[in-house]
Write a structure and sequence with these properties.
30% helix; alpha/beta; 2 domains
């Protein structure tokens, strides 16, 4: 359990750790507050030298955009080149909240070494609705490498999990004043599992 990661709130405000350069150390797993996002990207780009998955999720979400991760010195940083401004690198501090949050989630899910369990609480927060399908695909691909638990209020995201991952979303309900998961029996099985 010590290696598990819980990502409840990847802040995107002006002082967010996601927006700041960080120490340039090899970083295989994103910290729970996202404070080492630039180092996670630098590890993938300059240590692992494999950006295929990272390039794919950027293209899926922002067609034509390219993530720029300069060779780190004492600190690591990153920026995004957008197709409408091909000669301009938008640094992390300049990115929209939704774009930055999506990149933070990419850091969570594409790290060089993923924890054995990842919990994502409302990963759709601040994301444009068009990013929900790319997010679902990214989570489904990461689920091949680790266990992922997602809590969401977005039916659109839950439907995308069903479409791209073949998983049935579970609905939280109130039953006799208690919070419960619809279809869950006292033994831990789900009623609909008996139909399979």
């Amino acid at each position: 359990m010590l290696s598990w990661r819980f990502y409840h709130d990847l802040r995107t405000d002006r002082a967010s750790p996601l927006r700041q350069p960080c120490l340039a150390v090899t970083t295989p797993t994103l910290a729970s507050d996202g404070s080492d996002l630039a180092a996670v990207f630098a590890t993938l780009v300059h240590v692992r030298e494999d950006t295929a998955d990272l390039d794919q999720v950027i293209e899926d979400a922002f067609p034509g955009a390219k993530l720029q991760v300069p060779p780190p010195g004492r600190t690591a940083s990153f920026g995004l080149v957008l197709p409408d401004y091909p000669k301009r690198v938008f640094e992390a501090g300049e990115l929209s909240d939704g774009t930055l949050r999506y990149l933070g989630l990419a850091g969570v899910l594409l790290g060089y070494r993923l924890p054995g369990f990842i919990a994502l609480n409302e990963p759709e927060a601040s994301l444009h609705p068009e990013l929900l399908a790319p997010l679902a695909r990214m989570i489904v691909r990461a689920a091949a490498r680790t266990q992922i638990w997602v809590v969401t209020h977005s039916e659109r995201l839950a439907d995308a999990f069903a479409e791209f991952g073949g998983v049935k979303p579970r609905v939280v309900i109130k039953r006799s004043g208690e919070t419960w998961i619809e279809g869950l029996k006292l033994g831990g099985d789900f009623r609909d599992d008996e139909d399979d």
